[in-house]
C-alpha cells in the first residue's frame, strides 16, 4: 500500500549495484524506499507489551512516532498475529505507546481475540524522506543515475540530487550549477593612456587549484 493512495504515486528504479536495486515510491512531497519487496525501515524500538483491546496498544520506547506513521512489527512471541505486518499509528497514546490501525482504511486493529503477548518484538517506522515534488507533478519527472546519485529534473522545480548513503539514510538537495570558487572582489584598474585615445574592456576571473 502506498503512503497515501488518494493521490498519484510514481515508482522509479534505483540500481545501487549489480546486486542491489531499490524501488523508489515518489508521492506527495515524500519518497519511500523498497528493497526485494519490503519497505526500508528505520531503526526499531523494542516492544515491552501489547494489549488485547480494540484497538490494540503497543508499548515500545520512548519512541518518536507521530500520528499516521506507518510501522512494521516483527519478532513478537505470544501475540504472533501482529508479526510481519504493517500498521498505522493513528493516536500517539504516550511517548511509550501507540494504537494500531489499518493502513488500508484506518480502522482499529482489534487484538481482543489475539493470543496474549508474551515477550520480545520490534516496531519500526517505514523510512520516509521529504521531497519537494507535489503529487500532481510526478509524471513530468526526468531522472538519470550515476552509482549512488540520481539527478532529477522537472520544468517547475530546481534540479535535485538524490544520494544514497545507506539503506535508511538518503538525502535530496538542489543541484549546485556553476563554479564552486567565488568571484574575485576588490578589483580596480588604471590606465596610462591619454583620455579618449583607446577604449578597453576587462573581464577578471579566478581559477582554483582544480582548474575551475
Oligomer: single chain
Helix proportion range? under 10%
Q: What is the number of helical segments per DSSP (H or I, 4+ residues)?
A: 0
Categorize the overall geometry.
elongated
Quickly give the structural class. mainly beta
Widest beta sheet: strand line-up: 5-6-9-8-7-10
In total, the number of strands is 15
Radius of gyration: 26 Å
Taking the alpha carbons of the first and last residues, their distance comes to 47 Å
Commentary on this structure:
This protein is mainly beta and 212 residues long. 0% of the residues lie in helices and 41% in strands. The protein has no helices and 15 strands. It has a 6-stranded antiparallel beta barrel with strand order 5-6-9-8-7-10. Strands 1, 2, 3, 4 and 11 form a 5-stranded antiparallel sheet that branches. It has a 4-stranded antiparallel sheet with strand order 12-13-14-15, with no helix packed on it. Strand 2 and strand 3 form a beta hairpin. 22% of the residues are buried.
Topology (elements, then pairings):
Elements: E1 10-15, E2 21-27, E3 30-35, E4 38-39, E5 45-50, E6 57-60, E7 69-74, E8 85-94, E9 97-101, E10 122-125, E11 128-130, E12 142-146, E13 149-154, E14 157-166, E15 169-174
Key terms for this structure?
212 residues; mainly beta; six-stranded antiparallel barrel; five-stranded antiparallel sheet; elongated
